[in-house]
Design goal:
Structural class: alpha/beta
Number of helices: 9
Strand order of the largest sheet: 8-7-6-9-10-12-11
Strand content: 25-35%
Radius of gyration: 17 Å
CATH superfamily of the largest domain: Vaccinia Virus protein VP39
Bound molecules: 1-{4-[(3-aminopropyl)amino]butyl}guanidine
Number of strands: 12
Largest sheet: 7 strands, mixed
């Protein structure tokens, strides 16, 4: 019998992957987590019914949430990743030779599953500059500072990640950054949920002098059109060129990913001039 996983993209749209087998199913204290082996996308991590990452296209998301902020900063040393328990963002951060990378994820089950079954992501954890903290990212940010770059690699803004898209959290982020510090955050699909990007853009614009939304094409996420945002009090411009291996990100893409389609610019009232 054929076995499929479908994610509900809207009430009337669903998108599916044909499954070879289920590697694991864990109901943690926070989330319902499945790890599937799929035919076309390899290992696929699903949290609360939403695809988080797949072996085949994870590079796009992880490169794009990491390299733009890391190359905007003149010399990023201390990096904080909130969420990102799978280790994919940490793996990309290590390409910049930082001093210290702290990953704070609320759910140890994600970290353990990745360590056991997704070495292509969790190999970052064998580097002793990477420290894992299991806990609430919001509380962590309130109590720690001195970061050059903070990357918010969360699930959708419902459930455990809801607070990561609120003003109180953004205020705390600003306080925990060093001067010239930069944040990046994933902001969902502007095709189905432009309000997610608009909300983040509006709130961050009240707190930071410079805010830039940017896009990537991620085949396994709803609509394939995915948004991110960077924010800082220093101008957001490319300060260094990538001198490491990538599969999606290029120097050219740093700026081209910030060229937004008209419906997004109009909806978010952002012209790329902040
Ligand atoms: N975090 C963002 C995934 C959002 C997917 N949303 C969805 N499928 N509805 C990815 C975590 C990878 N480290």
């Amino acid at each position: 019998m054929e076995y499929w996983f479908y994610e509900e993209h809207t009430e009337n749209v669903r998108w599916g992957l044909r499954i070879k087998n289920e590697i694991a199913h864990v109901k943690s204290d926070f989330q319902d987590i499945h790890l599937f082996e799929t035919y076309d996308f390899g290992k696929t991590l699903v949290i609360d019914g939403t695809i988080q990452t797949t072996e085949r296209d994870e590079f796009i998301y992880h490169e794009m949430i990491v390299h733009p902020p890391m190359l905007t900063h003149p010399s990023p040393r201390k990096i904080l990743i909130i969420g990102g328990g799978d280790g994919g963002a940490a793996r990309e951060v290590l390409k910049h030779d930082p001093q210290e990378v702290i990953v704070v994820d609320i759910d140890s089950a994600v970290i353990e599953l990745s360590k056991k079954h997704m070495k292509f992501l969790s190999k970052a954890y064998s580097d002793d500059r990477v420290k894992i903290v299991v806990g609430d990212g919001i509380e962590y940010v309130k109590k720690h500072d001195g970061f050059d770059v903070i990357i918010i690699d969360s699930t959708d803004p419902v459930g455990p990640a809801e607070g990561l898209f609120k003003k109180e959290f953004y205020d705390a982020l600003k306080k925990s950054l060093n001067d010239g510090g930069i944040i990046s955050q994933q902001c969902g699909t502007p095709f189905y949920h432009p309000e997610e990007l608009k909300n983040a853009y509006d709130l961050l614009s009240k707190i930071f002098k410079f805010v830039k939304p940017y896009l990537a094409h991620i085949p396994t996420y709803p609509s394939g059109m995915w948004s991110f945002v960077m924010a800082s009090d220093d101008e957001l411009k490319l300060r260094r060129v990538p001198e490491f291996e990538t599969k999606y990100f290029t120097e050219e893409l740093y700026y081209s990913s910030m060229s937004l389609p008209k419906f997004i610019k109009e909806y978010c009232h952002c012209n790329g001039d902040k």
